[in-house]
Amino acid sequence: MPSDREQGLDSELTRASADLACTRERLVVSMDELGREVTRTLDWREWVRRRPGMALCLAFGLGIFLGRRD
Q: Is 2:10 a contact under the CB 8 Å cutoff?
């Protein structure tokens, strides 16, 4: 029969394992969200959709710059 101390250690280990599993799950969810946000931020189509005026100005400026090159 386990002693009170051994039962306490088992209880602490069980709680620590549950906390670790919960933390691991939250980390996985956070990393997935971060990956989606990075993908969305770096997608040029999303950038143009959210800032059409700026995209038009940049395209115009780039056209002038490339058109004037010798």
A: yes
pTM exceeds cut of 0.70: no
CB 22 within 8 A of CB 30: no
Q: Parse the chain into domains and list their residue ranges.
A: 4-68
Q: Is the pLDDT of residue 25 over 80?
A: yes
Torsion, CA 63, CA 58, CA 40, CA 46, rounded to 10: -80
Residue pair 12/18 in contact by the 8 Å Cβ criterion = no
Q: Which of 49, 48, 50, 68 has the alpha carbon at shortest distance from 58?
A: 48
Q: Where are the alpha helices (DSSP H) in the chain?
A: 4-42, 44-50, 52-68
Residue type, 22: C
